[in-house]
Write a structure and sequence with these properties.
heterodimer, A: 76 residues, mainly alpha, 2 helices, B: alpha/beta, Beta Polymerase, domain 2, seven-stranded mixed β-sheet, 8 helices, 7 strands
Amino acid sequence: MNFSDNTRTHAATAPNRTDAGAVLAREAGVPFQPPLGNASGIDPITEWLSLMEVVQMLCPVWPVRDRPMQGNHWRL
Amino acid sequence: MSNLAEQIREALAMFARNGTEPALIGGLAVVAHQVVRATKDVDFLVEAEAADRVHDALLDLGYQCLYRSEDAANYVRATEGLDLLYAHRPLARRLLAQASERETPMGHMRIISVEGLIGFKLQGFVNDATRTRDLDDIRALLKIHHASLDMDELRDYFALFNKPELLNELLG
């Protein structure tokens, strides 16, 4: 298996890359943000579904909530 | 279609059968607003008047209710979770009414505005300061959408939770 770093290749082909501060992650943490608007044809929910297919393969048991929501500040 | 997508599609169908059109909030709404990250948070803002019939319908689907108040409810079904916030105050009712429509692979969905989503994320953080994920989401949404955000609306939300200085911190 080849674990070589191909980040540079990904960065060159991705629709848009932001800096790491954007807290956007896919593919081992490489920041990813679909371009704003619909012109690119990239749907973030479709991208998320693809991401979650992989996540669920790697982590089939995802922790679910085991305690109620906290707090008393419901103002919205 | 993944189990997660099936779960969401089933929930959307249930809402439609019960005559209510909730809006997506929480982590998946963050994704819908262009911050693509891993999340299994299925959260909806539901009109308060539909709370009882949605509760019954979720139990019929096999969910167990972990918690329910006039503001929120948490449901689980095996490894699946589903959270509801109830819109009964004017702000939440307005945000629900103004939610945008979106066609998704799981079906027709309504999605809360970016400003409203930030408001709910802030509420989540104020209610539970261990939820630093909420702050990360707010920071990312501010960064991506800064040019189009209604800053007056955002300032109102941060003032509502007595955190006006936090907005400036998150804007960096």
